[in-house]
Backbone:
């Protein structure tokens, strides 16, 4: 698959212990986005989203609210050069 847009995302707020990673994986798969998501030891969630530009933009908007128990205070996205493997996975905490 040719990716029109690839971004690395950092989500801050109450985003750990609220099923944020599983929710992200489910939403990304529904949109056909490749990439991954993981918790960071600083309490944030990090992800890479790759796909059609509109789908990545939609995923970023979804991340601003997250799953019902999340309280997102910030979403930062920067361009990413590394192309992820096909599919979307949860990775271990770093």
Residues:
């Amino acid at each position: 698959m040719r990716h029109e847009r690839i971004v690395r995302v950092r989500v801050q707020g109450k985003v750990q212990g609220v099923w944020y990673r599983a929710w992200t994986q489910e939403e990304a798969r529904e949109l056909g986005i490749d990439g991954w998501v993981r918790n960071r030891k600083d309490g944030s969630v990090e992800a890479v989203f790759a796909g059609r530009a509109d789908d990545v933009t939609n995923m970023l908007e979804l991340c601003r609210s997250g799953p019902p128990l999340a309280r997102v205070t910030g979403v930062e996205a920067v361009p990413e050069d590394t192309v992820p493997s096909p599919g979307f996975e949860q990775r271990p905490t770093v």
Remarks:
- The chain has a mean pLDDT of 96.
- The domain at 5-82 is CATH 3.30.70.100 (Alpha-Beta Plaits).
- The longest helix spans residues 20-31.
